[in-house]
Amino acid sequence: MLRGTTLDFKGEKLVEVNFTNSNKMRYTVTAAVNGLGEKLPISCIFRWTKEKRHPPRWAKQNPNKPCPCFYTKGGSQSGTSMLAWIKEILLPWCAANGRRSDEWACLIMDPATVHRDAKVKKFCLENRIQIVMMPASTTYLYQMIDVVIGKPFKDAMCDLWGEWMVNSGMQTTPDGNYKAPKPMDCISWVAQAWKELKTTSVVKKAKELGMLADPGPVVEGYVERKFEDEAPSGKEADVYIAELERDFAKDEE
Length: 253
Description:
Elements: H1 17-20, E1 28-30, E2 43-47, H2 57-61, E3 69-72, H3 79-96, E4 105-109, H4 118-126, E5 129-133, H5 139-142, H6 144-167, H7 183-196, H8 199-208, H9 234-252
Parallel strand pairs: 2-3, 4-5
Antiparallel strand pairs: 1-2
């Protein structure tokens, strides 16, 4: 489940995923926070069915999940799941937290290929979301999820997984592999770990690193600049959107 983690108290170099025979049950967790350290709803990405690209049977049998789930070919982020995340999580969260329809938002991400998808960029611009990409190999310095949130969240996930392993009696399959947790178990752990993550500690650490949107003390002669001043004008956005449409039209050809 977690690379480099062992439940063997003798400290042997083991990775439990090798003994559950479940390395193909990989899934992705999509976490995000705003510039004040507030958590957005957490979500998961699982593999879709190979035949029809539909949610797997277990997902259909469990419609009421602890957090939203999306489905892709390999269980990792794609342009399609990225668009779904923006539509179903980011935009509703922004609206619920006071963002006006005429205001611009800034979405900061690492330069993963799916984050640079032309359709994602086009949709964001159409919905007044300015995408900002961190330079490659800098997320360990500037991405709040990596720097501040990742470790406590993964630690909580590891604790929940270890508790499940112990309570399940370390059961094994006929082949001698440890029994793997079910997807719904993993989703529950993700939702619980995210809910219990204390934002106060996150904010404290983020402030120490200078990663929060804290304007600080007012300096004499300072003129406040709003993000709208840096956002593209309607005409600039239209031109950029047209360029993006030409780009992914070529890709489809």
